[in-house]
Amino acid sequence: MKKILITGGAGFIGHHLANELINLNFQVNIIDNLSTGKKSNIPKKSLFFYGDINNIKLLNKASKNCNIIFHLAACTELQKSIYKPEETLQDNLISTLNVIKICMKRKKKLIFASSCSIYDLKASDKLIEDRDINPKNPYAMSKYFSEELIRFYSNNFKLNY
What we know:
about 40% helix, alpha/beta, 5-stranded parallel beta sheet, globular
């Protein structure tokens, strides 16, 4: 049975992903600090690790024997990113680096959730991923820089993502 770690697994997307993976007979570990996620979102058939992915020791423990890491954890509050950009960068960019290091160390596949906010969008626009990148706030920048960090590790160190 494949074992999967979901960072931010107590959030809306993580909750649905965890349930679907469990239904497909995957063993699911979840790590979440519950800053925006809810404990009630954590499936009973999963193994839950309460804490932050900036805690390397806990991240190591939660990812042990996992084949794939779905990295969904992030500070998503736009206003907070504007008034406290250092917290957003710590929560989004540095934590992504922590997940990358775990994937590299254990040769695990990384699946990363970015954001459409990295694109210059208007409400009437259709989202196409080859649009020009134009992150306009620290949250969008942190997601874009995380993508670039993942690309860098893939190109230079064979990160599987």
